[in-house]
Amino acid sequence: MALMLGLFAITLMAGIPIAVCLGLASLVMIFIQGFPPMVFAQKLFIAQQSSLLLAIPLFILAGELMRPAGIMEEMLKFINLLVGRFRGSLGYVNVLGSMVFSGTSGSAVADASATGGIMIPMISREYKDPSFAACLTGASSTVGPIIPPSIPMIFYALLGNVSVIGLFIAGVVPGLIIGIGLLVMSGIYSHRRKHPVTEVKTSFAELRRSFLRSLPILLMPIIVIGGIVGGIFTATEAAAIAVLYVFLAGFLLTRKLKISDLVPAFINTAVLMSVVFLILSTSTVVAFELTVLGIPDAVANWFLEFTSNKWVFLICATAFFLAIGMILEPIPAMIMLVPIFEPVAMSYGLHPIHFGFVVVLNLVIGLLTPPVGPTLYITGGIANVSIERMSKDILPWVGFLILVLLLTVFVPEVVLWLPGLMGYV
To answer: Does pLDDT of 355 surpass 80?
Structure first.
């Protein structure tokens, strides 16, 4: 174990991509333990033998196509007509736009890039407050993997043998709590900093026209989420329907999507998925090595000897995953750690959906924290704000997200109430 961790740490510090670091460390261990090289190849391919994984590139493709299709612009225009008369209205548009977009992308990074590309320049120009724009967008992007669908939840469902639809439903109430809380925080910031009121003159006829143009777009997450929850189609089928919906909306409704836009979207999706699948494959070999070394059983025995109280374990696991999320992205962190911690959580009698959601939320918050924090770098880069300033200004927003995390930890009903109502608990 120490040798494998040492190899991984050395190669990572050398600047080698994380997937290659994981692969090299696990390959060396395969040879040391005397397994034939074929085992390494088999584990790489076995990791991708699930139809549920098809949902991930499809959701990513839907997100990639939404920007050239002009779907985000139409949706944000309508939201702005509704709330534009209030102080800090652009902040409200930002949060509400992220909540709607989360119903199709399932990714915080995609949300930060798509919403941020439109809203950050607008807020920076109108309010002269680029740091606020970047921090708010980064925080609101966290609802992407919380409100269903969710790419991290798909991975956890595969690793923890948990109902993916149950996990999706579990994210609805916490996602709404995060969204409402961010709206309140945005309003407080705007009033304290005296952000100007954006003059939005509109008539009922204009509002009606904007609503009708936006209606098919606003219905998109309802169709995707409702279809999954209602059992009309699976998560993978929902992802395919999301792509088809964006195609039709872009070509027939907004008429902004062009054939030439498809190639860059397909290429970006392929590049992103090649990275994700390579990390998935090599992390699966690492998980196999940990199992061979008996690490899951050792961790379970240590925790059971340390405490018999499930709340103490849950607090320790929460602190651990929150720290890991600061240095690892959700997918490799889950692939390596969920096979270790999930059986321990079950031995304490924790509900698998509750524990799975807590793990996902921990790692999603990590996307917003230095030193890695990809959404922090994306929004800061768009706003042209230094990472040093972002690391300081983001603290109140991260603090709020941690409060929501603690609420879901100590009040499981926040997570389990809706899945129980739908028959998944």
So the answer is: yes
Q: Is residue 10 part of a domain?
A: no
- Return left, alpha or beta for 36; rule: phi > 0 is left, psi -120 to 50 is alpha, else beta: beta
Cα angle 300, 150, 239 (rounded to 5 degrees) comes to: 130
What domain range includes position 98?
Answer: 51-257+293-421
- Give a yes or no: residue 35 inside a domain: no
Write the DSSP string, 210-251. Answer: HHHHHHHHHHHHHHHHHHHHTTSS-HHHHHHHHHHHHHHIII
> What is the per-residue pLDDT across 26-52, written as a single tens digit (0 to 9) for each?
888 888 877 887 888 887 777 677 777
Residue 243 near residue 118 (C-beta atoms within 8 A): no
Torsion, Cα of 205, 208, 209, 210 (10° steps): 120
Does residue 297 sit within a domain?
yes
Largest CA distance in the chain: 75
- CA 85, CA 207: separation in Å to the nearest integer? 13
Q: How confident is the model at residue 182 (pLDDT cuts 50, 70, 90)?
A: very high
- Report how far residue 332's alpha carbon sits from residue 110's, in angstroms, rounded to the nearest whole number: 18
Question: Is residue 95 within 8 Å of residue 183, measured between CB atoms?
Answer: yes
Put simply, whether the predicted model's pTM sits higher than 0.70 gets the answer: yes
| Domain count along the chain | 1
Q: Which residues contact 152 (CB under 8 A, 6 or more apart)?
A: 145, 330, 331, 334, 360, 363, 364
Of 66, 70, 67, 60, the C-alpha closest to 108 is: 60
